[in-house]
Recover the amino acids of this structure.
């Protein structure tokens, strides 16, 4: 299993990024969460097989229609065995 912590920047709030990502993540079969940050970025943790995680990371690089992703920082994290994927409140 692989778990990553991701922060994407750009025009990523107010475009349905989190809720579309929840659908993408559930379709890919990964666990984790996504939330807006007060600085205008979106933060997420994704856990699954390396292929599943890569699939979601590829989507995150573009985001939904209307998003403009200008930066992405991916950090490896320790898998937790989490299940399900949710949208969390803004941090």
């Amino acid at each position: 299993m692989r778990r990553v912590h991701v922060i994407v920047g750009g025009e990523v709030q107010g475009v349905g990024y989190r809720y579309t990502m929840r659908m993408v993540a559930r379709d890919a079969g990964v666990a984790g969460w996504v939330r807006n940050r007060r600085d205008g970025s979106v933060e997420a943790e994704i856990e699954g097989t390396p292929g599943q995680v890569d699939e979601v990371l590829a989507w995150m690089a573009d985001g939904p229609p209307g998003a403009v992703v200008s930066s992405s920082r991916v950090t490896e994290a320790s898998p937790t065995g989490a299940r399900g994927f949710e949208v969390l409140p803004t941090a």
Q: What stands out?
A: The mean pLDDT is 97. The two ends are 26 Å apart (CA to CA). The chain has one domain: 2-75. DSSP finds two helices and five strands in the chain.
